[in-house]
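Appendix B, example 12.
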Amino acid sequence: MVMAGGMIKRLVTSTILGCGIFVGGGIASLHSATAQITGSEVPPPEPAILFSADEVDYNQELQTVTARGNVEISREGRILLADTVSYDRSQDVLTASGNVSITEPTGEVTFASYVELSGDFKEGIVQDIYVLLDENTRIAGAGARRSGGNFTEIAKAVYSPCKVCEDNGSSSTPLWRIRAARVLHDSDSKTVEYEDARLEVAGIPVLYTPYFQHPDPTVKRQSGLLAPSFGSTSHVGSYFSQPYYWSIDNSKDMTFTPTYTTDEGPVLATEYRQRLDSGEFDVVNSITRDTEDDWQGHIDAKGRFDIDPTWRWGFDAEQASEKTYLSRYGFGSPSVLTSNLFTEGFRGASYTRADAYYFQGLKSDDDRDTTPIVLPHLQFHGQSAPAKYGSITTLDLDGLSLTRDEGTNSHRVSAKAGWELPHVGTMGDVTKLSLSVRSDNYLVSDVSRTNRENYSGYTGRLLPLAAIDWQMPFVNSQGSYQQVITPIAMAAWSPNGGNPDEIPNEDSQSFELDDINLFSHDRFGGLDRAEDGFRASYGLEWGIYGPQGGYTSAMFGQSYRANENDTFARGSGLDEHLSDYVGRVTVAPNQYLDLTYRYRLSKDDFSARRNQVTATVGSLDTLRLNATYLHFTDEAGSEEFNEREEIYFHAQRQFNQYWSGQAYGRYDIDETDPLEYGIGFVYEDECFIFDGRVRRTFYRDQDLGESDEFLFRLVFKTLGEFASAAGL
């Protein structure tokens, strides 16, 4: 039914033949003018324009359609909303006015007061344009021209991802924005180009450029400059770093970071990353020429690759040209660099691994000639499925070849076969019986022995072990709380004399008794040393657990050794029949408090041999404090330090939605002097990051003395920022 004046009401269903318009329930389908068809060639139908409106006026003579009120038009994934739309079928031109918005298939939205477009929305002009891109980034201008469906050229434009807040009825100035005489947004290449552009911060112009380009916010990887960093250190003076990111293709990229320093030469650091079908690798390196005209540099590479579902291989390569290079140029301060080539396999409950190691010690007394090379180190661990009564059989194999230019060389083959039988008693007690035999075979040279000449030749040992572990938990429910008390005991036996002095000690040099290894059958971490004789440990664990996850727990224990010998070093806590007391206390009633105290007390007078207190208090939303207190005496058996008493703290505070700060410090209580401290502040909102840090160290590292460090970083989000390291 056609009403007077040619107007079709929204809820009227009508069909007008020959004019290419169908209206049903207020939804219409328009087709642009049809080309003549010759012969039997039938071209594919042109995409339809689907629209709905409160009312539609069709003029058949002029071939125009006018829609008014809540107009919605869709074509090829693009959606136009407006108060009024007029479509001229003869010219294939569409005009819209009043609250106009165009949503692209990519999600980009364009707002305007008036648009004049081709029927496919790909060509036309726009007045008072406002474009909303990904991540709430905005481009606004006096007018624009669309072409090709992907180019939007905006005149007198402003670009900014910053929110503009209403303050007393007027809009405030965004934190930063770019003003330009012309802006071109290419939605296909996903770039934003500027002509005669200036960067304004808080409305104040700070930088001008005749041309500028950056990826639009939908781009996650694209070549370009990253956020720079600048600052000062006592080792290199003032510096400025400007990273450049190169997106090579979808599987690999590279970052170049040239750094200019005032007291040393320029530094070029690179990082290459690549992903393969079978794995990935990452290579970081740097190079510079110092003030003495010597070339310096480092490499830090890592790769992991799958061979098949069972096997994989990988590598780690770490080397530096001199011991203090990494610390001097801000690449970290490790004490040793480890290069490793390995392959490993996982099948069922078995594990196989082969390694080669090369080490570079960075301490002042490290000597390359006495640093070992490990080639190879072979390991295998396998265990059977639970058999009769739940018993499990295990097999461990280990082969190692360790050589030096100067000093002891060691070639070792070890094998250990074991059997375990767990048992749960009727009273809830848990018992495990363990039996094993271990064979260690060595071919060594230049092994240093006390009051005897160095030894070269074959040596070895055969070491059986029998052990039993027992524990019995007692559970008591008190309302919504559960209390658990668990007595624990362990007894083990191996023959005496398991450590002849012909066997070098390469992998078991560092040992300290604590609550973690108290109930281990062999408390050495490696194979070159073995715990022998009869030994036993006892202890008690207690814990109370709340319904919301909070808990408090404690543990206390001691060990006994039948033989008093030199298996363990003096001060280790295990050098006499009865060991020192070890234990821990943890209090964590909720997410705002976590307190752990670990201790080792003298068996004679309960004096503290080693104390460590770690506390975390507060919430990241307000203020969070972390503190660690560490104290160990000369009798604690530390091979690295003499008596020391230190405290370390770290505080984080979220001041408001945008500002946060942190501070840390490390102090030597005995000397009443700080070892280092630092402070930093970060401002971050939807469009900007400011990161500022200050650090002061008071200790010496070989030729590096006390240092002061300053770091500042400014990031204008969406201007191509991908990632940025802190720099020096």
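The CA atoms of residues 135 and 217 lie 6 Å apart. The chain is about 0% helix and 60% strand.
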